Amino acid sequence: MAAGVALPAQSAVADDGFDVRITVSGHGGTVTGAGSYEPGETVQLTATPKKGHVWGGWTSTDLDWIGARVDSFTMPASDVVLTTSFRHAIKPLKDVYRDYFDVGNIYSGPQTYAAGSPNLATVERHYSAMTAENAMKPDQLLPNANIDPVTGAFTFTFAAADAFVDQTLAKHKKVHGHVLVWHGQSPARLNSGPTGGTRELARANMERYIKDVLTHFKGRTVSWDVVNEAFVDGLDEFDPATQDWRDFLRGGPNGGWSNWYAAYANGADTAAGQSPADFVYDAFVFARKYGPEQRLVYNDFNVFQSEGKGEAIVTMAKDLNARYAAEHPRDKRPLIESIGLQSHNYINQTPAFACSDHTQLRKVVNDAAEEWQPGACSDHASVERSLQLIIDAGLTADISELDTQVWEAWNGQPEGDDRSQYRDLTDPSVKDRISRDGFTYWVGKITNRAELEKIQAQRFAEYFAVYKKYSTHLDRVTFWGLTDQLSWRSTHNPQIFNGDFSEKLSAVAVADPERWLGIRGQITDTSTLAATVAEAKAIDLRAYTPKSAAAVKKALGQAKAVLAKGGPQARVNKANADLERAISQLQLHKPHHPKPTPPKPPHPRP
Question: Which GO terms describe its biological process (predicted)?
Fold first, then answer.
């Protein structure tokens, strides 16, 4: 059917019947359902996209639908006009971001890799790195019952994790390990009771656990969350000049609970400088010792609170890295290399941008916007400002558990997390949630649920614009769930695919944030290239051989041209790699020792 053409009624209209008419935009599929119907009759609809296309749902003012994904309705006593559309499917996200960072998702069990499933098809199409949602957590690898209550001996259960890791590697995707040390989902005997309740016992158990796990997975993972969620929540302000980050760990004077903190407090020699907080340092030292090839990450939520929790975490990382550098001068790598921002975000609470004084994306920032509106910003708490703090501390970042929740209550009330209560945002029945108790934030702000999908897409576009702008300091962006329905917060509709794996507008926004935001050209991160150029310009090339100095001059000229003219991230990355390589291959002039002139033979006497 031609685009934009209304389908006529499929049969003559009866005296008391009414018409269903359908208008289609785009050439990517076919529809059925137009015709004449009696009031109360069920109208069956189909919309079948061609290969490589997706369907945009049904919109009808007569039915109060906007982009609804339904297959039937009851005919009213009036004519009904439906409009629909087809568009090209988004490109594979792993290809879109190949030159920026890895794009990942989670493995939730064997169903994720089930042959022939949409789960597997989505993983294979879009993602380059995978994290086990649960299979590599301490209580899965070492159940409490597998720690001998008398001797403390460990009996690991690696089978499920091995299956995940081996299958992931067979699909040519990277594995990120999650998690080694955490107050949650860990066996109690590891750090409490007669087998682990003292500082000495807990420390020995921690070393043994980390050694065994990292040795078992050696060569099969690229990075690990070493410590997870050690800080209390609700830390809105933190001043490193007057406050100690140790006071804000779970179990410390500001609340929360952690068996690791409690065990390390039991037997700590404070006079000798020991602290319950030492468990964080020990965990990273053991991870470096037994997994020197791994990139080591500290992972937490609400890190976007740049002047509070984010600042405390960065201060902790700087302190522990300085301590490690002093104690291990031969290891030139930072101990804590990356901060994982879990990024369980809300579209009305988690702004992407720093404001105009700090942002690198001024053209799309609106300093005056309310939190949920396009361009909303904050210097007090925003993704961009926190990334800047992390980068300024000499660290990299991971977006480790990304979702963007549309409703207000953090726990998805009143439905909670009951997946039987899940509804796509494209389900017309969702409209009643906008004004329901517990979902009241949007009252007076929006009029229909389709606006939520657009607001969510806007926020995802803003996040990925920020991620691209700081991409040379960002290793990985991992979505925490394949679809809305498969998310741990399913009733919050937090992901970029609907429950049937169809693309939401958020998927479109993620695949091309520049187009969504109206930005001309591609967002690139030239900060690392600019730093390498500055390094090269500071080198006195006269001290080096002409050939190696010429190579640096050539690469420097090309790098400066890229900075001046711009270009895709791949070109920026290549220019930086070429210049770094040329610098690394500089060769000093060999000392010149001229041969001494032999003395002239004495003149013979006459």
Answer: polysaccharide catabolic process
The span from the CA of 331 to the CA of 368, in Å, is 47
- Per residue in 530-557, pLDDT tens? 999 999 999 999 999 999 999 999 999 9
Determine the pLDDT at residue 415.
Answer: 66
pTM tops 0.85: yes
Tell me the pLDDT tens digit for each residue of 464-483: 999 999 999 999 999 999 99
Bridge pairing between strands 338-341 and 295-300: parallel
**In whole angstroms, what is the distance from residue 508 CA to residue 203 CA?**
48
pLDDT (0 to 100) of residue 356 = 95
Segment holding 315, helix H or strand E: helix 309-327
- How crowded is residue 151: how many other Cβ atoms within 10 Å of its Cβ? 8
- Residue 411 above 80 pLDDT? no
> Does 562 sit behind a cis peptide bond, omega within 30 degrees of 0 on the bond before it?
no
The end-to-end CA distance of the chain, in Å, is 121
Is residue 478 within 8 Å of 126, Cβ to Cβ? no
pLDDT at residue 419, rounded to an integer: 80
- Helix (H) / strand (E) element for 287: namely helix 278-290
Contact yes or no for 345/402 (Cβ under 8 A): yes
Q: Which two tokens stand for residue 355?
A: 């404001």
The answer to whether the CB of 3 falls within 8 A of the CB of 24 is yes
Place 188 in a pLDDT band, splitting at 50, 70 and 90: very high
Query: What is the Cα–Cα distance from 339 to 329, expressed in whole angstroms?
Result: 22
Q: Do 229 and 184 contact (CB within 8 A), yes or no?
A: yes
For residue 398, the cross-strand partners are 340, 476
Give the list of residues 6+ apart from residue 162 with CB closer than 8 angstroms, or none: none
User: b or e along 64-82 (b: 16 or more beta carbons within 10 Å of the residue's beta carbon)?
Assistant: ebbbbbbeebebeeebbbb
What is the chain's alpha carbon radius of gyration, rounded to the nearest angstrom? 30
> Which of 259-263, 386-390, 432-436 bottoms out in mean pLDDT, i.e. has the lowest?
432-436
Alpha helices (H) in 127-277, listed in sequence order? 138-141, 159-170, 193-196, 199-216, 259-265
Q: Which two tokens stand for residue 107?
A: 């493995």
The pLDDT value recorded for residue 1 is 40
The CATH number of 6-88, from 2.60.40, 2.30.29, 2.40.50, 1.20.120, is 2.60.40
Greatest CA separation for the chain = 147
Rounded average pLDDT over 293-315: 98
| Span 95-124, pLDDT tens digits | 999 999 999 999 999 999 999 999 999 999
Superfamily of domain 101-145+177-188+218-243+279-517 in CATH is Glycosidases (3.20.20.80)
Answer whether 6-88 and 101-145+177-188+218-243+279-517 agree in fold: no
Distance set, CA 391 to CA 380, 387, 522 (Å): 17, 6, 22
Query: What would the mean pLDDT of 492-518 be, rounded to a whole number?
Result: 97
pLDDT at 10: 42
Report the sign of the C-alpha dihedral through residues 549, 555, 556, 561, in that order. Answer: positive
Residue 188 gets which letter from DSSP?
G
H or E segment to which residue 226 belongs: strand 223-228
Delimit the domains of the chain by residue range.
6-88, 101-145+177-188+218-243+279-517, 527-584
pLDDT at residue 19 greater than cutoff 60: yes
- Asked if the bond preceding 49 is cis, omega within 30° of 0, the reply is no
